[in-house]
């Protein structure tokens, strides 16, 4: 179980880091033209960049607090925050009428984050 939780944390951290870095570094026009990124055309640049920064912080929060001497409770707390973020992402894609692939992928990340939160809060705490 511990190995599965570490894999879930690593996958989510990679997703969060890649998504966050893209929102922080890519021009808004490029983000808006990317598959699934059309919502960024409706959002302000400050919101998109802030979301990107939070995603990069989430990548750190999913893994680094597990290091010895750190705050391990931040791992499941970050996973719960990721669940909320993915629920919002799903709602945004559905509201915009995007292809169902996008909310489905967000749903898969939501389930993975819920598994991580449950696992680190109750099954195998760090």
From TrEMBL:
> So which residues are the signal peptide here?
none
> Could you state one GO cellular component term attached to this entry?
membrane
Keyword Membrane assigned to the entry: answer is yes
Which Pfam family is one of this chain's hits? DoxX_2
Membrane-spanning intervals of the chain: 69-88, 100-123
Ordered alphabetically, the record's keywords are: Membrane, Transmembrane, Transmembrane helix
**What domain of life does the UniProt record list for this protein's source?**
Bacteria
Principal localization? membrane
Coiled coil regions in record? none
Membrane topology annotation? Multi-pass membrane protein
- Give the subcellular location: Membrane
| Family annotation (InterPro entries) | DoxX
Q: Per its record, how is this protein called by name?
A: DoxX-like family protein
Q: What is the lineage of its organism?
A: Bacteria, Bacillati, Actinomycetota, Actinomycetes, Streptosporangiales
């Amino acid at each position: 179980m511990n190995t599965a939780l570490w894999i879930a944390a690593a996958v989510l951290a990679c997703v969060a880091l890649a998504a966050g870095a893209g929102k922080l570094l890519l021009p808004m026009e490029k983000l808006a033209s990317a598959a699934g990124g059309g919502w960024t055309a409706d959002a302000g640049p400050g919101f998109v960049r802030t979301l990107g920064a939070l995603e990069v912080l989430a990548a750190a929060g999913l893994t680094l607090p597990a290091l010895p001497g750190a705050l391990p409770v931040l791992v499941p707390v970050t996973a719960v925050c990721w669940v909320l973020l993915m629920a919002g992402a799903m709602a945004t894609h559905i509201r915009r009428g995007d292809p169902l692939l996008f909310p489905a992928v967000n749903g898969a990340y939501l389930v993975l984050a819920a598994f991580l939160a449950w696992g680190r809060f109750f099954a195998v705490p760090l």
